[in-house]
Amino acid sequence: DQQVKQNSPSLSVQEGRISILNCDYTNSMFDYFLWYKKYPAEGPTFLISISSIKDKNEDGRFTVFLNKSAKHLSLHIVPSQPGDSAVYFCAASGTGTASKLTFGTGTRLQVTL
Amino acid sequence: DTGVSQDPRHKITKRGQNVTFRCDPISEHNRLYWYRQTLGQGPEFLTYFQNEAQLEKSRLLSDRFSAERPKGSFSTLEIQRTEQGDSAMYLCASSRALLQVSGNTIYFGEGSWLTVV
């Protein structure tokens, strides 16, 4: 039962353009959502998060949008840079779960020159 | 501010041997988590501690797995009688326990790769 889904295993974007990574969830108890970036053989690095009381959170080049009614969130990276090439994981936690995270399967982003 | 550190980073062991991983969380983080990640999957929750108390264990954590956090600081994850299916990256993470029950950001270590041959 995949409660957090990232349906695009990979994405290729040109440098300078916008990267949009999508994530869907099924558990309506989730109320906190996070994006992590992961390089090979390293642990996930926290990027940005959003609480369910908001619909947008911005941090520099990274913006996360949350559509609760659609149970959908997206990460926008503008402008994309070659160093952004990595695997991006969407994760969610819910009230009463002590911040235990449920992860998606990841989207591999490649930013080309 | 040092991050979460894990040791060893890589471990190759023969099937049937025991292995132990150590995790040092970010100082003053009272929650510590263990996750496991296999190729093509996201990290999967194994267990977590609040201070020295182990408060939750996943069904993934078979009887061969044991985790401890004796003084509420560092933690160890031991796998007994390793099997080839145990080959994975074992991730440790930590966070503060804030007043709200959810909404805490979890910070991960570099991971410990286990290969069982």
Write out key terms for the chains shown:
heterodimer, A: 113 residues, six-stranded mixed beta sheet, five-stranded antiparallel beta sheet, globular, B: 117 residues, mainly beta, seven-stranded mixed beta sheet
Please explain how this structure is put together.
The complex is a heterodimer of chains A (113) and B (117). Chain A has 113 residues and is mostly beta strands. Chain A contains no helices and eleven strands. Chain A has strands spanning 4-5, 10-14, 19-25, 30-38, 45-51, 56-59, 62-67, 72-77, 86-94, 102-103, 107-112. In chain A, the strands form two sheets. In chain A, strands 2, 4, 5, 9, 10 and 11 form a six-stranded mixed beta sheet that branches. Chain A has a five-stranded antiparallel beta sheet with strand order 1-3-8-7-6, with no helix packed on it. In chain A, a hairpin with a 2-residue loop joins strand 6 (56-59) and strand 7 (62-67). Chain A starts with a strand and ends with a strand. Chain B is mainly β. Chain B has no helices and eleven strands. Chain B has strands at 5-7, 10-13, 19-24, 31-37, 44-50, 53-57, 65-68, 75-79, 88-95, 107-108, 112-116. In chain B, a hairpin with a 6-residue loop joins strand 7 (65-68) and strand 8. The model of chain B has no long low-confidence stretch (mean pLDDT 91).
